[in-house]
């Protein structure tokens, strides 16, 4: 039974995504090439590795066993690259990091900059995911470091504090609730919203509306917090963004900011890994760096 590293990376990507097309894109393969590799793996094993259905794919018990060993091999490869990079000038290493929207857009750029400058031969594979998905992915060994809200099920993951993320409503100075210090989310469900085109934070906010039996009236979706603030300050609608972003844009825009009183709007962001002992030396150094002064 012989698989190459591309086979194993592909299988893990497909298993995590639950979709062959997305898994193939993750590892840079075309759909036909990926499908052929997966079929060949099943032929070599003599057993079905993936259950295929209308909603995607999921690993069979044999597939779960293969995924477990593939993760162990990936971890061993990461350790090997990490140790070699300490002795071989110019050898690059990559650290896999999963983070939610607030961490990526508000906190990580400032935290990462000095570390990346100090480690020119290390790249980061940074991906945005929802908090619950990050916790599951780290527990399963799909990435080395995760940053997410501690409101989700943590399990046995190793945690360090990272930041506090407080969501607020941003609107024009003339908005009818602009003078309020804080409001309940239910009070704004009938408003016109400016939101993000995609991302974990936008999904989180829309999930909260669904829990209240409502659907947000999205007037426009943009790509950045700045876009939300510029439109909201003009009176085009309201938006929900981290308070750190609102404070930054209030310096240059006629923007009002009102805290959301609901518990879900105050999120403690945590840094996590399966265990510091399982991280490569570079990943452990990054982990410790990100947790400094919190």
Automatic annotation (TrEMBL):
<keyword id="KW-0804">Transcription</keyword>
<protein>
    <submittedName>
        <fullName>Transcriptional regulator</fullName>
    </submittedName>
</protein>
<dbReference type="Pfam" id="PF03466">
    <property type="entry name" value="LysR_substrate"/>
</dbReference>
<feature type="domain" description="HTH lysR-type">
    <location>
        <begin position="3"/>
        <end position="60"/>
    </location>
</feature>
<dbReference type="InterPro" id="IPR005119">
    <property type="entry name" value="LysR_subst-bd"/>
</dbReference>
<dbReference type="InterPro" id="IPR000847">
    <property type="entry name" value="LysR_HTH_N"/>
</dbReference>
<dbReference type="Pfam" id="PF00126">
    <property type="entry name" value="HTH_1"/>
</dbReference>
<keyword id="KW-0805">Transcription regulation</keyword>
<dbReference type="GO" id="GO:0003677">
    <property type="term" value="F:DNA binding"/>
</dbReference>
<comment type="similarity">
    <text>Belongs to the LysR transcriptional regulatory family.</text>
</comment>
<keyword id="KW-0238">DNA-binding</keyword>
<dbReference type="GO" id="GO:0003700">
    <property type="term" value="F:DNA-binding transcription factor activity"/>
</dbReference>
<dbReference type="InterPro" id="IPR036388">
    <property type="entry name" value="WH-like_DNA-bd_sf"/>
</dbReference>
<dbReference type="InterPro" id="IPR050950">
    <property type="entry name" value="HTH-type_LysR_regulators"/>
</dbReference>
<dbReference type="InterPro" id="IPR036390">
    <property type="entry name" value="WH_DNA-bd_sf"/>
</dbReference>
<dbReference type="GO" id="GO:0005829">
    <property type="term" value="C:cytosol"/>
</dbReference>
